[in-house]
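Entry:
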Amino acid sequence: MPEHSKPLDGIKVVEFTHMVMGPAVGVILADLGADVVKVEPLQGDNTRRLKGSGAGYFAMYNRNKSSVCLDLKSDQGLATARELVLRSDIMIENFRPGAMDKLGLGYPQLSEVNPALIYCSLKGFLSGPYEHRTALDEVTQMMGGLAYMTGPPDRPLRAGSSVIDITGGMFGVIGILAALQERHNTGRGKQVTSSLFETTAFMVGQHIAQQGVSGEEPPPMSVRRSAWSVYDIFTCGDGDKVFVGVVSDSLWQRFCEEFELRDFADDPGMASNSKRVNQRDVILPRVEALFAGMDKQELMARLDRAGVPFAPINKPIDLVSDTHMLQGGGLVDINLESGKQIKLPGLPIEFDGEKPGLRRNLPAPGEGGRERLLAMGFSAGDLDRLIAQGVMIAY
């Protein structure tokens, strides 16, 4: 994306975050062109050192940022952090409730001095009886019914990604952008809060509505009653699997034409989706047998030709060699601290056909911080003194 056309050019963001939800807000703003400074402890964000399922958190959510390491337990480090916020347009934090207030970095204290500040807090819960609680993505998936809807009956199962952390972060960005637009008119910022629990509630709202409309409690998605006649995973002749969804009457006609199912196409008892759903026991065995006589590539080519929605059953790593992702510019090259380079998904947005892309690789602790602080009006002498005192790492 051309340097001059970044939507958030000139917007200064300071980020006090760790794990996923807070950094997800920061990386979206950074990808959109904001100057994001990540404030880390002197030893660097602990997220950098996570293993297991957390090993990819830092690499995925911290590109296009600068880093400043500060000792917030020291008066000088805390004063520098405060000054950094006061020179910024947006602050992001996702620490436990009350932690930033105890440091003097809460919204009431900072907005008195910088009334234009937009202050984004990422929490477990919005206002209410649970607001004091600390939550996790998995906690609210369980509380909010998402795990119930994902797993088999009586076996709640978290989704296979940090979906609530990520979407909760996206709602935080939506709130920030709304507050930024309002600030154009009023000159004042405000506090924006996004949460895991209420995000989960929004995500399962369709199931609550389903029960209200149908009068029946929806079963988990793993055993749901399909709303369409063909909406299933099928096994091909080579053993690979493909998902196929025929979700309209026009698609049904194209599907039948492509696969020479003329009797199905002409059957008045299958003329509408509601009628076909009642004949899944007739339709599916025929389709299963048909697909079992083709390999995956032949089946997908014919589905593509017919315009029928389909998907191979991939692993996440398959995306880094996906033709569409590669040729469409959907991947960015990220350098890890180990020196290894990997490809990761970029922001899934285009502006005039161009994706935001990579401007700055993952920062080492303190990397890029000096440049950003100087650009924000800090003096070189003050920075040198703080570094010499051991309360800051920035270079």
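Residues 236 and 298 are 10 Å apart (CA to CA).
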